[in-house]
Amino acid sequence: MAGRKQHHIPQVLLRGFAQDGGGKNQRVAVYHRERGIYEPATLGVAAERDFYSSPTGGDEETLDDKITAYESRITSFLDKIRACDTKIVDALEAAEAVTHLSIRPAYIREVFSEMTARLFQQIEDSHDFTDTWKLLQLDRLTPGKEMMKTLEEQYAEYADRTTLPKRKFIQTLYDGIKDHFQRNDVPSMRPLVELLIAHLNQGREKLIRDSHNRALNDSLAPEPRVQTLKKLRWEVRKLAAGALVLPDCVAVAENENGRVSPLFMPGGGETVTVWMPVSHDRLLVGRRYSPARIDVTKLNRALAGCSWEQFVGQQRAEELEQLIPRIGTILREQMDATFSGKSKKGRR
């Protein structure tokens, strides 16, 4: 049975960056965007109470139980590649491990939460609601769950002033809202839109958590993603000098246009290279083309930029401390460009 303190980056991966030789209380250096540098044991890094699931009180297998059982395969793979210097790695094994480790961390929830919050804010600030049709559940014959909450609040406010039955009132109001949207009658829509967005925002974190957990329950290493990565040539590289950091997104990718982003996050273009640090001195690399020399300084800069809140290193180091301002920059710059483009589109 798995415990309630659940690691979204497993300790078996974190221990590759530990300062100590063995034991469960190995320490690492965490470089955090807001908290600076601290040195906890791996037990307290990338972990949260009931992150995946809560105890059921019975024999039913939870999502965390499934993940814990699956980790035995990851442990075996990591132990094997950490024990070699330079070696071609089985493509299927590498693809499964990298896929699993990169789809389970908290950064996925945090990034999508930020994106959703920005989208809601943009809708509230917008003078053109035409792009919010599906988001606000107006592409249906009858109201969806969140829209229904808003309409029921409206009925409660007007119940003593209407002769319409509740069901008829709600459907009439819903049809009227859709008609207003189609005619882009913004002033009369704004109070209702703001109320609906408040409902959606209130449940945003739970919605994203539930969606993430459902995806993991469906597959801990989704086959389409595994097959994409399996096409790359995988090898483990041992560094002659320097020390790698572990980003909170675990693995990063470069596309055919030279753009680097967290693996499986929107980056555009076909992936040509994937990097996943497996210890402070070993790097798992998947490439479409022949391998090139590893520039540790340049790679660490990319790993820090692709992190969302923090990255892990083996020791405190001035050159790594200088990377803290880089944390989160790559995804946030991409978001800024995306939402700036949407804003300009809405103003035309």
What report would you give on this structure?
The chain is α+β, with helices and mostly antiparallel strands. Helix content is 47%, strand content 14%. The chain is built from 12 helices and 12 strands. The protein has helices at 11-14, 63-82, 91-103, 106-125, 145-158, 166-183, 186-202, 204-218, 223-230, 296-306, 318-321, 329-347; strands at 5-7, 29-32, 36-38, 47-49, 86-88, 233-238, 246-247, 252-255, 260-262, 271-279, 282-287, 310-313. It has a 6-stranded antiparallel β-sheet, with helices on both faces. Strands 3-2-12-7 form a 4-stranded antiparallel β-sheet. Helix 3 packs across helix 9 and helix 5 (145-158) crosses helix 6. The longest helix is centred in the N-terminal third of the chain and has 20 residues, at 63-82. The chain is elongated and about 80 Å long. It starts with a strand and ends with a helix. 33% of the residues are buried. The model is unreliable at 343-348 (pLDDT under 50).
